[in-house]
Amino acid sequence: MATQVLALNGVVISDQNAASDYVRFLHPKQWQLLDFDAIYAMDWRHPDDPIAYWRHKAKKCAEVLVPHGVDPGFIAGAHVVNEATEIELRSCGFRLPVSVSPVLFFR
Question: Cα separation of 73 and 81, whole Å?
Answer without folding.
Answer: 23
